Give the backbone structure.
Amino acid sequence: MTIRYPRWEDLEGMRAFINTVSQEDIFVTFSGETVTREGEMYYLSEMFKGMELQDSLYLGCFAGEKLAGSCSILRDTQGRRRSFHVGIFGITIAQEFRGEGVGEELSKATIDEAEKVIEGLRLLRLQVYSPNSVARHLYEKLGFVDYGNLPKGVWYKGEYVDEVVMYKKLTD
C-alpha cells in the first residue's frame, strides 16, 4: 500500500472507485449515480487547482495501481475568510479494504499533510450518518468529538437518519 497524491494517470481508477462506491449505496453522498469520464476529469482538475492554491488536500491509498481509499480536506470557503481556518474532512474506503486499518492510516497521513500544506488550518469538521458506528469510532480514535446532531438530516436507504457533526482541534 502506498499513500500519495493523485496523478492524471489515476483518472480511470478513481472513476471506477467512485462508481463502485456509489453503486454500494453506503454512507457517502453518492447514491447510485455514475460519474462520467468528463465528470471525473473536471473533479480531478478542480482538486489539482485547490491543492495548488493550498486550499485543499487529497491523498489516495493505492494497492499497486488500484485505489483502496481516498481522503480529502477542503478549506471551508463558505464563510469567506472568516472560516478559512476550518477544513472539511472526508474519507472513503473501497469495500475490499475496509476493516484492515487503511482508513486510520490514510486519515492520519492526510491530517498530518494538511497541517503542513494548508496554511492557517486550525480545526477540522466532518459529517457522519448516525448509523455509521464504524466511522464514528474511527473519528473518535482520531480525536474528533461530536458538536451537533441534525435529526433526520439525511435520506439513507429508505429512511431519514440523523446527521452527526464532529470536529477536531489541530492548534490553538
The beta strands are 2-4, 56-63, 66-75, 86-93, 123-129, 145-156, 159-169. The mean pLDDT is 91.
